[in-house]
Design goal:
Helices cover about 80% and strands about 0% of the residues.
């Protein structure tokens, strides 16, 4: 009788676990639902998994993956909200630095940076980097590389460089060529903005040594464009032409009209500087045609500016003045100032800032040349 009572007591104790395990049986496994990349299925399953305390880790993973799917759909608010839910669970599960927590912080940094919320992006990339550093994960390089880019966007170049130095040292330690490549490319961007063109070229050539071992079309196109631009600014026109001619077919393959027209313009300017006016005119006409066809006002104005430089080099002052004025008119027509936009993005503000600079340059050139012409 005593044995039978003991069995009954054990049955009562196991009863909640029995019902709970039955409740936590799903039509599809969690891994199958995640692999489907179907947000609705993942959301539905996450609601079911909430009732299963022993599956907290899986629930955090579901929220993490849902965040990624919303990011792909460009719904950054939801991407952040679900990733934060996943991070909260992971913080409860793991007291110490953990790879999964690093992933959550890194993704939040990416999402905030996409929203141009650079302060929050900085916080999360720093947290991710610290976690990965503590657990000796190769991902540490990616987080500090991203942190460097955040400081670059904020105009904090010294902090950008110091974090990039750390990212590169970690990438080299793990012999991670892809991340080493990314660091050298980013050095090129920072030094270019600091007008340290030779330093930019040196970094980009180190990137080229790695990149030439593989065929990565988009990376090659970006690299050649940056090299051509820096050589042009350094006054090394033959090198600028060599890389410009290499990169145009790549941008044509990618059907990137902006980059095509921009490269033709730069080629035209390089040929002008070398005194090869015939090739300069050919290149500038091609750049102008692409910019007109695709209605790219900023590049069209730069093309008209470069035609002004060509006419000026040929001593055709009246034509130069006209070209600079054409560039001014193109920019004025295409001018979209931030105050007319509701919540302008950083890129829109930067675009207008660049337009103002070009507009001022063109106006100054046209006015100065007109005065010179009238004095004759």
């Amino acid at each position: 009788m005593q044995f039978r009572s003991l069995k009954f007591l054990l049955f009562l104790l196991c009863l909640p676990t029995y019902f709970l395990s039955a409740q936590c049986e799903f039509d599809q496994s969690i891994s199958e639902v995640i692999a489907s990349r179907d947000i609705d299925k993942m959301l539905d399953l996450s609601n079911q998994v909430q009732a299963c305390p022993e599956l907290k880790d899986s629930l955090a993973l579901l929220y993490h993956k849902i965040g990624i799917r919303y990011y792909v759909k460009k719904d950054y608010e939801k991407a952040i909200a679900y990733t934060k839910q996943g991070l909260e669970i992971r913080n409860d599960l793991f007291d110490q630095p953990h790879f999964d927590k690093g992933q959550s912080h890194h993704n939040l940094g990416v999402f905030y940076k996409k929203k141009e919320d650079l302060n929050n992006a900085e916080v999360h990339f720093k947290s991710a980097g610290d976690i990965y550093d503590n657990i000796d994960s190769s991902n540490v390089s990616s987080s500090y590389w991203e942190l460097s880019k955040v400081y670059f966007l904020k105009g904090e170049y010294n902090r950008s460089l110091s974090n990039l130095d750390y990212a590169l040292s970690k990438a080299k330690g793990f012999k991670d060529e892809r991340r080493i490549l990314n660091c050298y490319l980013e050095y090129g961007n920072i030094h270019r903005d600091l007008t340290q063109y030779q330093a930019a070229i040196d970094s980009l050539l180190k990137a080229k040594e790695i990149l030439d071992q593989y065929y990565l079309g988009w990376d090659h196109a970006t690299l050649y464009t940056n090299l051509a631009s820096n050589y042009l600014k350094r006054g090394q026109y033959k090198e600028a032409i060599a890389y410009g001619e290499k990169v145009i077919p790549l941008w044509e393959d990618f059907e990137d009209a902006y980059q095509q027209s921009n490269e033709w313009n730069n080629l035209g300017l390089a040929y002008t500087r070398l005194g090869d006016f015939e090739n300069a005119a050919v290149c500038l006409n091609k750049g102008k045609a692409v910019a007109k066809q695709h209605n790219i006002g900023l590049v069209l104005s730069q093309s008209q500016n470069n035609f002004g430089e060509l006419f000026l080099a040929q001593g055709q002052i009246e034509k130069a003045v006209q070209s600079f004025h054409d560039g001014v008119r193109t920019l004025v027509t295409d001018f979209d100032t931030p105050q007319y936009l509701e919540n302008p993005s950083r890129k829109q503000v930067q675009r207008v800032s660049l337009k103002r600079k070009v507009l001022n340059d063109l106006s100054d050139k046209a006015a100065a040349l007109l005065m010179l012409y009238e004095e004759k």
